Amino acid sequence: MFTNKLLTCSALLIILLLLSNAVFSQKFISLPNVGSDASLEQANLFTSSSLTTPTSSTTGKPIITRSTSSITPPTTKTTSTESPTTTTPVISTTISPQPYPQPSVGTWNTSCIMLQMAAQLNFTYEAKGGNFTNGLYNIPNNASVEDSECKSQTTQFIHLIWGPETSKQSILMYFDKSNDTTVLSSIQIHLTLLSEDFPDAMENQTVQLIHKSDGEFKTPEKMSYHCTRVQKMNMTETLDAKQLIGWISVSHVQVEAFRMANGTGFSVAHDCDSSETSDVVPIAVGIALAALILVVLISYLCARRRSTSRGYMSF
User: Fold this and answer.
1) Higher pLDDT pick, 297 / 58
2) Its family (predicted)?
3) Dihedral of alpha carbons 295, 300, 303, 308, sign
C-alpha cells in the first residue's frame, strides 16, 4: 500500500518536473520569428549559454553560428580623362606685293645716232572705275629702230617701236646741235594701255607723254654723253602743257648724235658728273702768278742796285 503511494508520488513528482521544465523551455527558449542575422545570433548565444541537458555531465563551449552575407562594395565610376585635342591655329600669311622690276639696258644704233639706256615710265591713267591711278612701264630693251633722221646737221632723231602689230608703242628722241654742242631737245612717247600690262585701265586708252628738254644730255661735239645715275625728266600731254602727268627715269645712259657715218662705237665719253672748270679760273691764276714773279724780280733788282751804290761810296 505504502509502496503504491510512493510510486504514485514519484510519478507525480517526475510529471511536475517535466511540466515545469517544459514551461520554462517554452518561456525562455522560444526563438523570435525575426529574419535578421543579428536576432538569430543573439538567440543562438542565449540558447547555448542557458540550456543544459540533464543527461550531460560536462559543459562545453557555446557554439555561435553566424551567417555572414557578402556585401558588394559600391562601385565607383571611373572617369576617363582624355587629353583635349589641341588644334594649331592656321596663320594666314599675306604675301606682300613684289616691287616692279627695274628696266633693262638696251642699245640702238643708226648711221648718225648711237643710244644706250634703261628707261622706266611713271604716269597717270584712267582706270575702269573712272578714277585716275599711277602706272609703271619699262621701255623694252628689244625695241627696234623704226626710223631716224641723219641728213640734217642741226636736228636729228631716233624712233623706236615695240609691241603687237595692231597697237605699236613708240618713243621718239630729238637732238639739236648748236655752237659745237649737242643736247637732247625732246622725248615723245606713244603708249597704248594693253590689258596684259594694265588690266584695270579703261579700254582703248592711249597715253601721249612728252618731255621738253631743258638741256639734258649736253655734251661737246664729237663726244658721247655718259651718265650712270638715274635722271628724272617730267612728262606732260603736249609740248605747251604745264600739267604734270608723270615722268621718265633713265639710267646707264650713253648717247652720241651727229656721228660720222663710218664711225664705230662711242666717241670719248663726257660724264655727267665730271667737273667742268671755267677757262677764266686758270687765266686768273696765271695772271696772278706772273704778277707775283714780276713784283719779286723788281724788288730784287732794287735791292741789288742799292747795295752796289753803297759799295762805291765807301771808297
Assistant:
1) 297
2) Belongs to the LAMP family.
3) negative
Residue 218 vs residue 239, higher pLDDT: 218
Overall fold of domain 106-271: Porin (2.40.160)
pTM: 0.57
Cα separation, 301 vs 307, whole angstroms: 10
Task: List the chain domain ranges.
Answer: 2-50, 106-271
Nearest alpha-carbon partner for 170 in 199, 206, 143: 143
What is the CB neighbour count within 10 angstroms for residue 48? 14
- Whose CA is closest to 213, among 170, 190, 183? 183
On whether the CB atoms of residues 177 and 153 are closer than 8 A, the answer is yes
Question: In this structure, how many other beta carbons lie within 10 angstroms of the beta carbon of residue 136?
Answer: 16
Q: Which of 252, 218, 214, 206 is nearest to 233 (CA)?
A: 214
Mean of pLDDT values over 239-253: 84
How far apart CA 11 and CA 3 sit, in angstroms, is 12
